[in-house]
Specification:
The complex is a heterodimer. By secondary structure, chain A is mainly α. Among the domains of chain A are: about 50 residues, no CATH class; about 80 residues; about 30 residues. Chain A has ten helices and one strand. Chain B is mainly α. In chain B, helix 1 crosses helix 6 and helix 6 packs across helix 8. The radius of gyration of chain B is 17 Å and the shape is globular. The chains are: A mainly alpha, B mainly alpha. At the A-B interface, helix 1, helix 2 and strand 1 of A face helix 1, helix 2, strand 1, helix 5 and helix 6 of B.
């Protein structure tokens, strides 16, 4: 046996099943154990973040992505993307450049300011979508999701900075800016007019979806009925033959069942 | 401190299965492997809670190191004189495990054979083969856990594969 084959076989042992119930119950026991023995001294836990893209750190990935964009799409694409709205073809380029800016901002306070600026940008996009396209749910949900992420990220930084004792103007300013964005978003999304329109759209979507399903089901029923019609004669004949055979067997041999076995 | 709890629980979810499988292939006994897995994580938390370790930069190496020490202790304990009662208990355990293994449809004959040969290797060889090929650990990680140089780990893996190959050719 070659080394290669032996290693291949050894790797197959990875699939050896383990008792999942045991691991789940141990997890519960562990939780209780952790509560029973709380940490007395401070401990540093440095766990490297999982690399998000084929094992490459995010910095390299975004830089690489930007180089590719600049090489193939030219700087014009990046520039043009800045005016794009969520759901547009160029919008992913816009988010990519933002992600790059985020990665390259190492100072945590500056990062928090960046998030507040991005949150304002998202509010602007939401307003533009509503003005230009009305309630376009796809684009609006993309913008809303990113907006929430920016707000949470900024809040987390403020919290960490406060823990470190770095409060002062920074925390106040960021919190005030975030509150403005949050209020603006509320004004848009919690408006009765907006909500009733969204409900209207969703109900219409639901109706359309149900009709589509009904049509598919009807089509399938017709197909099945046609198939039954086509194949009914030979099947019936076979079934009849089988029944006749069975009857004959029953007549000829009372132990036909055991013979079949 | 909540963060530490969370990170520890996440690390448990990520590595517990691998640790359990690792211990099993080192000692060939599921019930004891489960006991030692439990002990590994309890011990890991306890040493963090009591401040025996000030910083954790690699949970994987941390857990495997503890598991490894427990396996070594287990083998040391086994060498000590055992009472007749314990021997009987052990025999019963082995019978139960063997019966369980026989019923495992997922394990083919080839896999069973390999598992058997693996269990016959000396622990030093078993350790590196299981870590490298079953737990997918890098040479660097193995050298961290075993306190051996990377060169030594490579040599050990090579020797272990040769011994395992001979068992097939027997």
């Amino acid at each position: 046996m070659k080394d290669k084959d032996l290693i291949k076989n050894l790797k197959k042992l990875k699939e050896t099943p383990v008792k999942r119930e045991f691991l789940a119950s141990l997890q519960n026991d562990l939780k209780k154990y952790m509560e029973f023995f709380p940490i007395r001294k401070g401990i540093k836990v440095k766990v490297p973040e999982a690399a998000p893209f084929f094992g490459l750190p995010i910095f390299k990935v975004t830089s690489f992505a930007l180089i590719v964009i600049l090489a193939f799409g030219g700087g014009g694409a990046v520039f043009a993307s800045q005016k794009s709205l969520p759901g547009d073809i160029l919008y992913p380029i816009k988010t990519l450049t933002e992600n790059l800016e985020e990665t390259l901002t190492f100072d945590s306070q500056k990062k928090a300011y960046l998030y507040t600026r991005l949150a304002e940008k998202r509010i602007g996009e939401i307003k533009n979508i509503l003005e230009e396209r009305g309630i376009e749910l796809k684009g609006l949900s993309i913008a809303e999701e990113r907006l929430v992420t920016h707000i949470i990220s900024a809040e987390q930084i403020v919290e960490k900075e406060l823990e470190k004792g770095r409060n002062g103007e920074f925390a106040e300013e960021i919190t005030a800016k975030l509150n403005i964005s949050r209020e603006e978003a509320k004004k848009i999304f919690e408006k009765e007019e907006y909500q009733s329109k969204v409900i209207e759209i969703l109900e219409r979507e639901q109706e359309r979806f149900e009709k589509e399903i009904e049509a598919i089901e009807e089509e399938e029923e017709v197909k099945e009925a046609e198939e039954d019609d086509d194949s009914s004669d030979p099947l019936d004949e076979e079934e009849l033959d089988d029944n006749n055979d069975d009857n004959e067997d029953d007549n000829n041999n009372s132990n036909s069942d055991s013979d079949d076995d | 401190m909540e963060m530490v709890h969370q990170k520890f629980e996440e690390a448990y979810q990520e590595y517990a299965e691998g640790i359990l499988r690792h211990i099993y292939f080192r000692i060939s006994n599921w019930p004891i492997a489960e006991d030692l897995t439990q002990e590994t994580f309890f011990k890991a938390w306890r040493s963090m809670a009591e401040g025996k370790v000030a910083e954790i930069s690699n949970f994987k190496a941390f857990f495997y190191k503890i598991a490894n020490n427990l396996i070594i202790d287990y083998y040391r304990g086994k060498k000590k004189e055992v009472s007749l009662e314990e021997m009987e208990e052990e025999a019963e355990n082995i019978a139960v495990v063997k019966a369980e293994q026989e019923h495992e449809v997922d394990l083919g004959i080839e896999k069973k054979k390999l598992e058997q040969y693996l269990s016959e290797l000396k622990d030093e060889y078993k350790q590196v083969l299981v870590m490298r090929f079953i737990n997918d650990m890098s040479i660097k990680e193995i050298s961290q856990v075993t306190n051996k140089t990377r060169g030594n780990v490579r040599i050990l893996i090579h020797r272990a594969l040769q011994v395992l190959k001979k068992k097939y050719e027997r």
